[in-house]
């Protein structure tokens, strides 16, 4: 029954990590690779965040003060690309690397060498992407959605490098996803049936399938762009018989599931943290699993809700509107389950719980604005305004980012063997919470008042809220340096953490000592 | 059903709206001036209120738990973790709410897609970074550029009221008439949006899209391009002037006349000799009083044209002075006093008479374009 | 939900098999991305959703006019980026009976001092009408070369289908004329463009 786990247990018995740089370059240890993913993603988070600071500084007042429109567009584009592909996705892969083997009682990921390779592709991809900033003609300036023909016929020369970078990221994500699937399917401890898997494992399994389904489509669409730009084809060029709208269909076929790739693992993590700090089992485990599955399936048939204004015939509009509204049902089930988990628990509010509660509240607000956007006629007013910007930042900042912070604080004692500084962490939370709301809530008002997105300058009636939003953004941005401080402090020392520092926590990861030894579960545990 | 939704929206909206309508701190969508925009507004309010209501219930339960079920307050955790009935209920109830929301939304969408029976058809073409409007049945069209100056954008002078939202030639439409808009683009995808109309549609190169509007109140309505279209995406506003029918008819007549004139000028190929001949006459009647028949002028008030820098070098500056005059001097703006042919003839004459042998000529068409680009 | 003691463990797959299936999925989806191009074209052809009108129409039955109904057909023309030709419909709009073949002309002139080749790309609005708009002869079927200074009247023969839905009373046919030899001068790399044009 546990043949696979046994073979792995008999693998080379290192007694500890190698020394120096080659440890990190050549490591196949899931914990090392997980740490590298997390560190890399935080570096990208700061880089993408500093671009957001440039954007908000320019938008602090009407008029052009700090940057030219051309550079402003590069900033919005790079901010989006870096945050999506560099910060959020690698952070979740990092969490998966660290926690999946610990949660399912496996000694390592199923394909450790591929794991190493998929990590080291990422710095290469982002080196290429960031280097476009220094190329003649500048970095990509067509938005992270890179609609043709702005990105093909009218793109800067660096577009080819951007395409290459996206290819490499895609390969990295796909390899990561295959590894996750193989690990989860083949390396669970004896007795851990699918319906006994922790929810983080479940959500990652489904995320991995989404990645495998859509990253190749992204690779396909950038390949078509590459061919249009360099090899004279006309996939997206009307003059040669192509159709620019086709680009949007293919892109959003990737793009909408991508949104769930960035949120589902956070759903999973929060589904561990809320029960742990409510000291009460998760409400509706099975319905949580089914809800995630339903969301993933529906995500394939809603893509055109990003394209309500391109002139889709009414039958198409109605289909995509109904399908999109339907997503509210499983999402609602998840929110209700979390609230029911908290209901009549014994709650305490350490940093992971604070971030998780904020996650539920703010993600739900983002969900509401998503529902409003799903109403096709109303979307004609909301589309491509700051209302959309507010919506997806409410989904991604408290959703993905807060989910990652919550996970980081929750598992930091396990990773480092020390407790983090709770006071500083709570300060980090409140600064982030206030900053985030101050930055993004006014964007709803701006959008409803008629401010288009992706503009470097705006009419005077939008001035007040933009200033508020910029102040909030600076506050949010600056408070992330505090997180760096907290983590460094925690790695260096602090109160020793026990194997299970949270009294309400459940799961195999808490059965190994803190910090988790370099090799864990060499002999698989038995799950009853 | 739509009426119900509207009523509910207005009712709930009126409860919430007073607190929300502050001067410059606009918090909510404006109802707009068309049937469509009003329908959208009531849909928006309905769904917003439903969301707020659900939010109040869900967050209410949550905050109650946060308040009452704290460990520090000595709360003892319960151990329940499923309840099939509750789980089925909170799957079905949201579904029913969604169906209720979908009904008015569908009705509004059907209305928005009904472009039939239009009275005026206008083609809107997006360019990097301006709009072109062609009145399909009327045979004329024009470009519409942002008229906010670079000085305002770069904070060198104070910003005016309609900063970034002013154009040289607004789109003019009659009130109370169904206007069908056909959208396309020259280069990249643009999107034409006027919030007050509830109309937004992408303009896609090589393809044509359509939408419509019927504006009930005369006025000037402003919007912007809403699809990232490159560097100056933020600087291509949409301005629409809705005017009463008579005023519209007069405007159309003027535009047609101008277009007709333009065509005449285009069709005729003026030669240098023809322009010189005509220019001499025009110069004699319009310019010679000050600048003298031999171009020697009467400095300092009336500079000489013979051998002058303006007449010998920069054609654009020359054209600018003749068309727009020089403020603070006796040089008038002749742009409205002379027609394009005479303007072109005079300038050509001035650049080639009295030994100013530049050999350069300017055609009436070029003058026309110059005058209409402002 | 599931009780481990009673439910047998699912059969363990080897890593090679899992990776194999995943790679098959990856390749399949990559191919699917490309397959969306022809699929979209087929889908558009069947439903007419993007307003791209079809190729040459071969009438199988003798045309029969529907005298009880007229449809207004409008003609638009615009140039693609940096296309210097004069290009306009000779007739701005026309009332037609469904079922009758109608001939109209577009005028094109090459005012430059070099020979050029143009290609007109059609688009029809409302897109719902696309399926009911048949062209039996159209200049857009072929590329149009013009010598320096040359001008031409290009014919279009079309039939509005009798089955055109009743609520459509106006059709707008728009042509965008593209220069087929030089790509739009945008970024600094000049690109030679092949046409993959196969639309009518």
Describe this structure in words.
The complex is a heterotrimer of chains A (528), B (374) and C (200). Chain A is mainly α. Chain A contains 17 helices and no strands. In chain A, helix 9 (264-278) runs parallel beside helix 12. Chain B has three domains: 2-112, Orthogonal Bundle (Helix Hairpins), CATH 1.10.287; 120-265, Sandwich (Immunoglobulin-like), CATH 2.60.40.420; 268-372, Cytochrome Bc1 Complex, Chain D, domain 2 (Orthogonal Bundle), CATH 1.10.760.10. Chain B has helices at residues 2-20, 35-68, 84-112, 150-153, 245-267, 272-286, 288-291, 309-312, 315-324, 340-352, 364-372, and strands spanning 120-127, 130-135, 140-144, 171-174, 178-185, 190-194, 199-203, 209-214, 219-225, 237-243. In chain B, the strands form two sheets. Chain B has a five-stranded mixed sheet with strand order 3-2-1-5-8. In chain B, strands 4-10-9-6-7 form a five-stranded mixed sheet. Helix content of chain C is 16%, strand content 32%. Chain C folds into two domains: 15-47, no CATH class; 71-179, Ctag/Cox11 (Ctag/Cox11 (Pfam 04442), Sandwich). Chains A and B meet through helix 4, helix 10, helix 11, helix 12 and helix 13 of A and helix 2, helix 3, strand 7 and strand 9 of B.
The coarse overall form of chain B would be elongated
CATH class of the largest domain in chain B: Mainly Beta
Q: How many helices of chain A in DSSP terms?
A: 17
Cα distance, first to last residue of chain A? 14 Å
Low-pLDDT ranges of chain A: 1-13
Examine the coordinates and then state which fold CATH places here, giving the name of the CATH topology of chain A.
Cytochrome C Oxidase, Chain A
How many strand units of chain A? 0
Q: Total number of β-strand segments of chain B?
A: 10
Q: The CATH topology of the largest domain in chain B, please?
A: Immunoglobulin-like
The overall pLDDT of chain B, averaged over residues, is 85
The CATH level-2 architecture of the largest domain in chain B is identified as Sandwich
List keywords for this structure.
heterotrimer; A: 528 residues; mainly alpha; Cytochrome C Oxidase, Chain A; 67% helix; C: 200 residues; alpha+beta; 2 domains; 5-stranded mixed β-sheet; 1 helix
In short:
Chain A is mostly helical. Chain A is built from 17 helices and no strands. Chain A has one domain (3-9, 23-511): Cytochrome c oxidase-like, subunit I domain (Cytochrome C Oxidase, Chain A, Up-down Bundle), CATH 1.20.210.
């Amino acid at each position: 029954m546990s043949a696979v786990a046994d073979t792995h247990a008999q693998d080379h018995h290192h007694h500890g990590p190698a020394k120096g740089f080659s440890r990190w370059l050549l490591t196949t240890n899931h914990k090392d690779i997980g740490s590298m993913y997390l560190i890399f993603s935080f570096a990208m988070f700061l880089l993408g965040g500093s671009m957001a600071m440039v954007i908000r500084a320019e938008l602090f007042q009407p008029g052009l003060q700090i940057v030219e429109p051309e550079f402003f567009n590069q900033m919005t584009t790079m901010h989006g690309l870096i945050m999506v592909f560099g910060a959020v996705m690698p952070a979740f892969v990092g969490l998966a690397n660290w926690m999946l083997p610990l949660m399912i009682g496996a000694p390592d990921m199923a394909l450790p060498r591929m794991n190493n390779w998929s990590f080291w592709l990422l710095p290469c991809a982002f080196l290429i992407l960031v280097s476009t900033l220094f190329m003649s003609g500048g970095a990509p300036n067509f938005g992270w959605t890179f609609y043709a023909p702005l990105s093909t016929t009218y793109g800067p020369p660096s577009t080819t490098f951007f395409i290459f970078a996206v290819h490499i990221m895609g390969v990295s994500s796909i390899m990561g996803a295959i590894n996750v699937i193989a690990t989860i399917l083949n390396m669970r401890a004896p007795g851990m049936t699918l319906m006994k898997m922790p929810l983080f494992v479940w959500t990652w399994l489904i995320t991995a399938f989404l990645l495998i389904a859509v990253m190749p489509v992204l690779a396909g669409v950038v390949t078509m762009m590459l061919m249009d730009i360099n090899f004279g084809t006309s996939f997206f060029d009307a003059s040669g018989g192509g159709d620019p709208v086709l680009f949007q269909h293919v892109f959003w076929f990737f793009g909408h599931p991508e949104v769930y790739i960035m949120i589902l693992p956070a759903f999973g993590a929060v589904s561990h943290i809320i029960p742990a700090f409510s000291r009460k089992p998760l409400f509706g485990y099975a319905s949580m699993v089914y809800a995630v599955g339903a969301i993933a399936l529906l995500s394939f048939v809603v893509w055109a809700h990003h394209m309500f204004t391109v002139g889709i015939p009414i039958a198409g509009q109605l289909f995509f509107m109904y399908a999109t509204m339907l997503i509210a049902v499983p999402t609602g089930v998840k929110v209700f389950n979390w609230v029911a988990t908290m209901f009549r628990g014994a709650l305490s509010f350490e940093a992971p719980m604070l971030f998780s509660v904020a996650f539920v509240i703010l993600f739900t607000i983002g969900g509401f604005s998503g529902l409003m956007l799903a109403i096709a006629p109303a979307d004609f007013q909301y589309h491509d305004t700051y209302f959309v910007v507010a919506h997806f930042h409410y989904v991604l900042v408290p959703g993905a980012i807060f989910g990652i912070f919550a996970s980081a604080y929750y598992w930091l004692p396990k990773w480092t063997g020390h407790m983090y500084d709770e006071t500083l962490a709570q300060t980090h939370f409140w600064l982030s919470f206030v900053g985030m709301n101050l930055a993004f809530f006014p964007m709803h008002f701006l959008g409803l008042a008629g401010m288009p997105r992706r503009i470097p300058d705006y009419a005077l009636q939008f001035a007040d809220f933009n200033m508020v939003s910029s102040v909030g953004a600076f506050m949010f941005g600056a408070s992330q340096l505090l997180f760096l401080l907290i983590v460094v402090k925690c790695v260096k020392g602090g109160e020793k953490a026990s194997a299970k520092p949270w009294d309400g926590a459940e799961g195999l990861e808490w059965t190994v000592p803190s910090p988790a030894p370099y090799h864990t579960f060499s002999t698989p545990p038995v799950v009853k | 059903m739509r009426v119900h939704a509207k009523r509910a929206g207005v009712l709930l909206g009126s409860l919430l709206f007073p607190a929300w309508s502050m001067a410059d701190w606009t918090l909510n969508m404006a109802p707009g001036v068309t049937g469509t925009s009003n329908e959208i507004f009531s849909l928006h309010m309905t769904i917003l209120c439903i969301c707020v209501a659900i939010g109040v219930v869900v967050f209410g339960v949550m905050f109650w738990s946060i308040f009452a079920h704290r460990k520090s307050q000595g709360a003892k955790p319960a151990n329940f973790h499923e309840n099939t009935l509750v789980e089925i209920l909170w799957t079905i109830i949201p579904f029913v709410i969604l169906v209720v929301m979908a009904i008015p939304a569908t009705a509004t969408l059907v209305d928005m897609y009904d472009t039939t029976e239009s009275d005026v058809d206008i083609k809107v073409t997006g360019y990097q970074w301006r709009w072109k409007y062609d009145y399909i049945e009327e045979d004329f069209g024009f470009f519409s550029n942002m008229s906010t100056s670079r000085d305002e954008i770069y904070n060198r002078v104070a910003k005016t009221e309609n900063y970034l939202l002013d154009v040289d030639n607004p789109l003019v439409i009659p009130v109370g008439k169904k206007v069908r808009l056909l959208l396309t683009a020259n280069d990249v995808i643009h999107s034409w949006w006027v919030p007050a109309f509830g109309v937004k549609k992408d303009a896609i190169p090589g393809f044509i899209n359509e939408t419509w509007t019927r504006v009930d109140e005369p006025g000037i309505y402003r919007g912007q391009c809403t699809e990232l279209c490159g560097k100056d995406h933020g600087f291509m506003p949409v301005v629409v002037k809705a005017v009463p029918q008579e005023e519209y008819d007069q405007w159309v007549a003027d535009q047609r006349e101008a277009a007709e004139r333009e065509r005449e000028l285009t069709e005729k190929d003026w030669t240098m000799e023809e322009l010189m001949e005509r220019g001499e006459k025009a110069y004699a009647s319009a310019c010679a009083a000050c600048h003298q028949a031999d171009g020697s002028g009467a400095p300092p008030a009336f500079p000489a044209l013979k051998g002058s820098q303006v007449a010998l070098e920069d054609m654009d500056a020359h054209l600018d002075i003749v068309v727009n005059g020089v403020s603070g001097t006796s040089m008038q703006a002749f742009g409205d006093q002379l027609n394009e042919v005479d303007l072109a003839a005079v300038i050509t004459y001035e650049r080639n008479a009295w030994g100013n042998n530049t050999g350069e000529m300017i055609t009436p068409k070029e003058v026309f374009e110059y005058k209409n680009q402002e | 939900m599931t009780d481990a003691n009673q439910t047998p463990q699912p059969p363990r797959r080897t890593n090679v098999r899992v990776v194999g299936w995943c790679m098959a999925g990856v390749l399949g989806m990559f191919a699917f991305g490309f397959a969306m191009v022809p699929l979209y074209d087929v889908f558009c052809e069947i439903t007419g959703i993007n307003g791209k009108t079809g190729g040459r129409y071969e009438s199988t039955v003798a045309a029969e006019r529907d005298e009880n109904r007229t449809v207004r057909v409008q003609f638009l023309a615009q140039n693609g980026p940096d296309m210097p030709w004069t290009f306009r419909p000779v007739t701005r709009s026309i009332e037609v009976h469904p079922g009758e073949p109608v001939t109209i002309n577009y005028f094109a002139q090459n005012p430059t001092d070099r020979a050029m080749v143009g290609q007109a790309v059609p688009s029809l609005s409302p897109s719902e009408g696309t399926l009911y708009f048949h062209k039996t002869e159209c200049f857009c079927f072929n590329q149009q070369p013009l010598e320096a200074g040359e001008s031409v009247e290009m014919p279009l023969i079309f039939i509005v289908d009798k089955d055109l839905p009743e609520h459509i009373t106006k059709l707008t046919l728009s042509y965008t004329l593209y220069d087929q030899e030089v790509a739009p001068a945008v970024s600094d790399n000049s690109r030679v463009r092949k046409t993959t044009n196969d639309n009518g």
